[in-house]
## 1
Amino acid sequence: MFKCYFCQGKTEIKNVDVDFRWGNKLFVIQDVPVEICIQCGERYYSAEVSKKLDDLVKNKAKNPLNTLEVPVFNWQ
Ligand SMILES: [Zn+2]
């Protein structure tokens, strides 16, 4: 079991949706098994998961399951 770097809380693997920024495009990958701190919610991506997210975005960028519209705002 891994301990959270920030709060020393316990972490567990949960399947969550991950927002992944690639250049000026935003990708959402569903059901990614990510290690999450159950106390503060910090997410930890293993090297294996990061690599697979990378590959997914590169290989399937032109063939997504679904496309979401993302509103963009300026702070001021
Ligand atoms: Zn934590």
## 2
Amino acid sequence: MNVYDSWRIAAMLDARGMCATKSVADADIIILNTCSVREKATNKVFSELGRIRDTKKPDALFGIVGCVAREAGAKAFHRIPELNFVLGPQSYHRLPEILENPDTKLLNIDLAGLEKFDELPQMIKAPTVSYIPIQEGCNHCCTYCIVPYTRGREISRAFDDVMRDTAAAAKTGAVEICFLGQNVNGYKYTDENGKTYRLSDLIRATAVMPEIRRIRFTSSYPTEMTDDLIDMFRTEPKLLPFLNMPIQSGSPDVLKRMNRPYSLDSYLEIIDKLRAARPDIQISSDFIVGFPGETDSDFEKTVDIARRVKYINSYSFKYSPRPHTAAALMPNQIPENIKRARLAILDNELNEIQREFNEQCINKTMLCLCEGPDKTGRHLLYRTPYMQQCIVTKKTDQAPETMAQIKITAANRASLRGEFVKD
Ligand code: SF4
């Protein structure tokens, strides 16, 4: 979501005749787009702002947008008095106001809804992989998560608005569409005639666009994985056979304290249904280790579920207490050294599963999407349907095909090597 927001901010400034500079020292405006989902990222924001202040041109405008801005509010101006603007994730479309009135301080951290999508200019040239937000905010209230505070309650965009943006992306260069939302499969929009649209309707309507070759969505909540959506994996070949569906913990007790109201059985049942619909589907997850009160036995259950499901491409983090969340006030916070040790064990397991899966891909041929040359210029980087990076040796100076059949020839944990099938 932050990558998408940054693109839209850049496009908005482009439309006003500005362009990106290579260094902060050359910029007339510096915008730090921030994430508060983990403590470490939040802590970095103010030290980074201090560095920007000391490096920038004296009259350059600078400020923060995103979730740390929403969380810090006016306090940000006290910590860094030179800041010109502090704009929350729902109000960055107001950024041009500071260009018109550079001598004022601009503060807006309202959770105003979806106005920003209407006020932002359309992108002139869409990226090959285009992110299309379909909903914002979240109603799930997991006890560790700051998102309901920073992004607000869940709200879905109108079906026609999403399809207008998707069609515009398809006409201006998009080949892959990634529908975005904090709770993306909770998408639900009812129009004035009482017709309700779900994520499956968006996928179906996008799949008929000839320019669009791949469709995916992130991030999913397990209990919102409805049958109509699971069925899309059976009927819609453009929908990639890869799904991020975070379980967070394998312990029923921890899940309860996290306020994630699904049982392991019901979660595994959804995975069975997905695999029945699309036998080649692979699942990834997010994990939090060291949640308050997590015992050795709870943690073992997390490692166990990772082995059972064989998640690929997963994200694992140490629990960090966030302001405005219930878990931050829970007793039995886990000491840092235990969290660190558990994370190392889980990472090791997840890396091993990833390496095994990558090795199983050797000799398979996959339709992959080109992301451009690597740093040396001698190779091309492709992305497989499972989001693995595949390095292919460039043979000619001709522009690479956006989509190519690639035979996987070698693999390690982090990436694949491949060759063009037609060659
Ligand atoms: S479902 Fe995701 S975004 Fe929503 S509260 Fe839980 S962790 Fe946060």
## 3
Amino acid sequence: MTEVSNETRFLHAVQMGLGAWQWGDRVIWGYGQAYTDDDIRKAFEASLNMGVQFVDTAEIYGSGYSERLLGIFLKETEQPVLVATKFFPWPWRFWKSSLLSALKHSLERLGLESVDLYQAHAPSWVMTPETMMEGMVECVQRGLTRTVGVSNFGQKNMIRAYTTLARHGIPLASNQVHYSLLNREVEKNGTLARCQELGVRLIAYSPLEEGLLTGKYSVENPPPGIRSSQYADLLKRIPPVIKLLQEIGLNYGDKTIAQVALNWLICKGALPIPGAKNAAQAEQNAGGAGWQLSAEDVAKLDEATDNIKEYGK
Ligand SMILES: NC(=O)c1ccc[n+]([C@@H]2O[C@H](COP(=O)([O-])OP(=O)(O)OC[C@H]3O[C@@H](n4cnc5c(N)ncnc54)[C@H](OP(=O)(O)O)[C@@H]3O)[C@@H](O)[C@H]2O)c1
């Protein structure tokens, strides 16, 4: 295990974050119908009140609206907030200078001089990880981001990013990947172990499997929109997992299904960033941190979900 660098230590101290994909996204999440800016503001405030101070956004969320909203909320609070955003690798972004230019636009929307974490949203089709990271180096050197992360990077690309940054004395702070009880690919393909070995914080996105791990959806009551077809198969297999989460939660002072699912990720060494559409969801999710499942319960959940999905297909 590489020792965690001083620059990225703050990220390892964060137990729970708040995802901001929902902020302004109409297509997947139904922003403007199911919830409004006011609901989002209250979700943000509830998170801060519960001690969640790390917010993950991206330039593409709501086509920039998520960053704008966060910028407004940041002005309304005195509390310190750690801000992470992302560079999207559009196929017309060939040059390393694209990163600096995109980050400047993100900072304008956020109303900030710098962010705490700037992440490459995914590997690029047209830019090597080396070129991307050279662009990131420039962002750090200009003082526009405190640290650098990647997202959706498999091990090979992650190591290329890590090595390029290391040449400039910059640590790779994080890799943000899909990880939940219902998607354990990063355990199976070695990404989680490699992150831990390198001192890279693994940030778990879709930690509630887009709402499935709250227990409110079933075959009879599928989630709205494209999630219903996306999860048609998985919905058939989750009832025993939901039941187990519920049973385990009772032993920890009535923790909810979502809270147990989030705590399982914390126990695995990941940083979950659940998305929330309103204060009630945000408050509940924040309660997934600050306590710990026993090793025995983690093992029970491992066993129950080991074969829930086929990996590597
Ligand atoms: N890097 C990437 O490529 C990538 C990809 C995806 C996500 N992300 C990041 O990860 C964050 C979280 O992932 P995600 O938003 O995909 O999925 P998620 O956190 O697993 O699920 C979020 C959704 O679940 C439902 N929900 C959340 N908390 C709830 C609660 N306590 N009770 C009941 N329902 C609840 C809400 O939707 P409903 O109420 O509609 O069910 C909410 O929109 C995103 O916001 C984003 O910041 C990154």
